[in-house]
Amino acid sequence: MAPLTQVSSFFFFLTTAALLCFYFVMSAPDGAEVLHFPGFDGQLPSKHYAGYITLGNEGNRRYLYYYFATSERIPSKDPIVFWINGGPGCSGMNAIVYFHGPFKIEEDKDYLINGVKVKLNPFPWTKVSNIVAVDSPAGTGFSYADNNDDYETDDAKTVSDLYKFVLKWFHEYPDFLSNPLYVTGCSYAGAYVPTLSLEIVKGIEAGVKPNINFKGYSLGNELTDYDILYNSRVPFAHRMGLISDKLYEDLRISCQGSYWNSNEPDCLKNMEAYHKNTAGINIEHVLFPHCHYELGIHSSISYEEERLRMNYGCEENGYQIDCPGAIIGKAVRNANTYHRIRDIYCYDYENRPMVLFDSESSRRDLHAQPVEVAGRWKRCTDELKYRKEKISLIKHHLNLTLKGYRAFIYSGDHDMAAPYIGTLEWIKKLNYRELESWRPWFVGDQIAGYTVQYEHNLLFATFKGAGHTVAEFTPREALVAFKRWVDGDENL
Question: Who contacts 258 (Cβ-Cβ below 8 Å, separation ≥6)?
Answer without folding.
Answer: 227, 231, 267
